[in-house]
Amino acid sequence: MHCAMKVGIVGLGLIGGSMAIDLKRKGFAQKVVGVEADPVNAAAAKQIGLVDEIVTLDECVAESDVVVLAVPVGAAVKLLSKVLDAYQAAQAQPSQAGPDQARAEDKVVIDVCSTKEMLADSVKYHPCRRQYVATHPMAGTEYSGPWAAMPGLFDGHACIICDAQESSSKAVRKIEALYDALNMRAIYMNSSNHDVHTAYVSHISHVTSFALALTVLDKEKDEKHIFDLASGGFSSTVRLAKSNPDMWVPILTQNRDNVLHVMDTYIEKMNAFRQAIAEGDEEAIRGLIDEANRIRRIIR
Based on the structure, what is the number of domains in the chain? Predict the structure, then answer.
């Protein structure tokens, strides 16, 4: 089904660039074209071989069987409508597809964003809605830009496919094949549940890492050796604080209600620890830690 697939990737950072590498390497894509607004990133992506060609968005949509929106979610909301509008316009014209190109009605656009409900709502009534598949590959690092792209980034991780019933079965099968090529396992849920779950497993981790980094940076003003004493445990806890604000500001604002709910719960737990420590209550501290240790059953 995908022996001659042409894939267009909009946004050639960590996720988009890593997808470009492996979709070509694994044989899913015969050709990968890229769209990148930053000229430095565009030149780097071409020079290091992430894509075969840098093109405009219009050229990408016209040429590609699958378009991947690998940009911050605020930009993805705007671009998704543009891509679906282009699909609609192409379907209204006599077929101009070449022998190696999919028909306009067979083209598919996906996003890889960390929030889904606003994206889904933005195109809910679009005539070409069924050509959109909402996805979230649960993989990444704290680094960004085309230089951060790497092969094997997605191996063994989960990919969430949202609102699959709103997409055509043919489109879903094509995207399942794409993620299968990336060695990912598919999980299915609706957009609303996705945003709740990612607030717990991803978004709160970044907020707490940002807050911890700010706390330590504030203390470091007075204690110059604090980073000299930092061990691997500190580095692993605070590494997410290196994440790009261009990506995380729209995530945290679009998923505001879910993130605030998780933050309130987190603050309750912090206050429980604070009270137990302030009172020197060793039994209470041990109980909180023992309860937290149950996470071993879930994460090994």
Answer: 2
- Taking alpha carbons only, the member of 156, 71, 157 closest to residue 111 is 71
> Phi/psi zone of residue 165: left (φ > 0), alpha (ψ -120 to 50 degrees), beta?
alpha
Do 61 and 101 reside in the same domain of the chain? Answer: yes
Residues 224 and 158 in one domain: no
Does the pTM surpass 0.70? The reply is yes
**166, 191, 216 — which closes off a domain?**
191
Look up the CATH number of the domain holding residue 165. Answer: 3.40.50.720
- What value does the mean pLDDT take over residues 1-27? 89
Buried b (16+ CB within 10 A) or exposed e, 233-263: eeeebbebbebeeebbebbbebbeebbeebb
Asked whether residue 20 falls in the same domain as residue 139, the answer is yes
Residue 124: Cβ within 10 Å count: 10
Residue 65's nearest CA partner among 176, 174, 182, 154 is 174
Contact criterion met (CB below 8 Å) for 128 and 104: no
Residue type, 25: R
pLDDT digits (tens, 9 = 90+) for 106-135: 999 999 999 999 999 999 999 999 999 999
Residue 266 burial by CB count (10 A; 0-12/13-18/19+): exposed, middle or buried? Answer: middle
Residue 1 has pLDDT above 50, yes or no: no
Per-residue pLDDT tens for 174-200? 999 999 999 999 999 999 999 999 999
Pick from 79, 104, 76: nearest CA to 89: 104
Strands of 190-266, DSSP E: none
3-state secondary structure of 134: strand
- Enter the tokens of residue 195: 């945003």
Dihedral angle, C-alpha 230, 235, 240, 242, nearest 10 °: 60
Element (H, E) at 66: strand 66-69
